[in-house]
Amino acid sequence: MSGSKVAALLALVAAVGLFGCARMARRAAPVPPSLGAASADSLLGRIEDRAEEIRSLRAVAKVRIQFEPEPGEDEGESFSTTQAVLAAAPASFRLDSLSPFGVSYAAVSDGQSLAVLTPEEGTIYRGRATPRSVSSATGVEASPADVARLLLGQVPMPRVQDRLAWVSAAPGNASVGGTREVPPQVYLHVPSADVAGETIVVGFSRPAGGNGEALPVVFERIDAQGDVRFRADFAEHRAFGEHVVPTRIDVKAPRSGATLTYRDVELNPELEPRSFHLATPPGMRDLPLEARADP
Hints:
- It contains four helices and 14 strands.
- By secondary structure, the chain is mainly beta.
- The model is unreliable at 1-11 and 17-25 (pLDDT under 50).
């Protein structure tokens, strides 16, 4: 893969590295039956409620990444992989890439440390879990907490200026990631507390398969010039037990995009801490993360 395409992939998810919701829990009024009557406070509260409702996940995911054509090319590149996914709030994740011969690669974090398994090299690389090391291991330049929240199907809200939030009706041509689901009915707008001039926009609807719940279906980061720096569409919602999650997540940034499609989803399983630790198998060696070349 060319250096420019690697850069495009990182641009796709680098925005996530700024995320890290540090807002205090609130007791907001419930979202009313008519989303058109929802207050900004109730929608912010709904986002927080979702984060509390879904604390862990076990699933299999098909991940597809697409790159727009470079100058002089007719078609962009794309590739797909199947992964076994474990995620747990606040910051733990495990991604095992699957092949006909077993696990071909793994990236595992407990929120503090990161381990990368490369069976072909007979090596496990270990070190601190930082946005830079997570980027090297997964292609996602983000903190472990940000990665975990995305894998849980959560809206990755940054710190925001709550008191300046407002709600608008969605335009008639609003869409949800090109799917046939109900498009956003209202949008929550709120200025970022971390990036000057940036606005966070979250679209809400009551999607098919969502048991009538008010759910975030679109997330955007819009810069001071009005350009969308990052967009995530949450679609194909399904109920698993008492909770509903999107089983398709589409993300888009300039020149690149990715789609994650879940199957075999289990919500809120009891995941022991050892699930997010890699023991060194016999015959393999440990090396520091710094010794690993970037993929």
